[in-house]
Design a protein that fits this description.
seven-stranded mixed β-sheet, about 45% helix, two-stranded antiparallel sheet, Rossmann fold, about 270 residues, alpha/beta, binds S-adenosylmethionine
């Protein structure tokens, strides 16, 4: 007990960037994590979408479509309606949201990594969506947008990469208008017996070698798999969303909890 108190005192005197955080199963200083995460996504950007399909057997598309259905973007908005998709990478969610609205809404993809954004911008240009989807480099912890700008905020498979998650959640709350919706899709904790064992075996034994073959480097995929296991349980994450100021916070599991969609509102 005395030892616990002593170590708590030691850690609280550290600067935030020196505080320990997880990079997959490795403990690193919080200030180191973002650079390591950025290396991962610079390396995988070109093959990111292909690997997503292989790693999830295409399920990530089903989960993302489900997220867009829950969001239900308006097809005839009374005024301009804009989504902010943070950690939006290659623009999957924004593309789906704009298309679901029959091109009636706009989206801003915000990501810290320009390699991911460049792939997304090319794709939006080819799809003829560059008038409706804007790509903006920025950090989820310190969003480059004024207060109360957006009608909805989405983040898909992004929040677990952010070093200071509570800070990112407070930023989400800040940039949303009153009545705005927050939706977060993330890999989560599997709560189906046997499925958890199969999923663990597949994740740790198959995904890094698959990454090695497709992208020439298995390490980024080892990080991705490990970071999923370090992410808070669905209930705890719902609590963190409430702590950031959101109301009516709920979540639903997809595929036995392999992924979960958390929802909250800013009133
Ligand atoms: C697994 S990808 C998800 C991309 C996309 N949302 C999707 O579902 O396909 C994670 C993304 O988070 C981005 N990211 C990591 N840390 C970030 C941060 N602090 N702020 C904004 N984006 C971040 C990475 O650059 C990467 O594009």
């Amino acid at each position: 007990m005395a030892q616990d108190q002593a170590s708590a005192r030691t850690s609280s005197s550290r600067a935030p960037e020196d505080m320990p955080t997880s990079f997959g199963f490795t403990t690193v200083a919080e200030g180191q994590k973002q650079g390591m995460v950025n290396d991962v996504f610079h390396k995988v950007a070109e093959r990111y979408d292909l690997m997503n399909d292989l790693m999830s057997g295409g399920l990530h598309r089903v989960w993302k479509d489900a997220m867009v259905s829950v969001l239900a973007p308006p097809k005839t908005p009374a005024r301009e309606w804009t989504l902010l998709d943070v950690a939006g990478g290659t623009g999957d969610i924004s593309t789906k949201v704009v298309r679901r609205s029959n091109n009636a809404v706009k989206a801003v993809v915000c990501d810290i990594n320009n390699s991911m954004l460049n792939v997304g911008q090319d794709r939006a240009d080819k799809a003829g969506l560059s008038e409706l989807i804007r790509f903006s480099q920025g950090n989820a912890e310190d969003l480059p947008f004024p207060d109360k700008t957006f009608d909805a905020y989405t983040i898909a498979f992004g929040i677990r990469n952010v070093p200071d998650i509570p800070k990112a959640l407070r930023e989400a709350h800040r940039v949303l208008k009153r009545g705005g919706r927050f939706l977060c899709l993330e890999f989560s904790e599997v709560d189906v017996p046997l499925l958890d064992k199969v999923y663990d075996a597949f994740s740790f034994k198959a995904i890094p070698p698959m990454g090695q073959v497709i992208t020439g480097d298995g390490e980024p995929y080892r990080y991705l798999v490990e970071s999923i296991r370090k992410f808070p349980h669905q209930e705890r994450f719902a609590e963190m969303i409430r702590e950031a100021g959101f109301e009516r916070v709920t979540y639903r599991n997809y595929t036995g909890g392999i992924a979960a969609l958390h929802s909250g509102w800013k009133f």
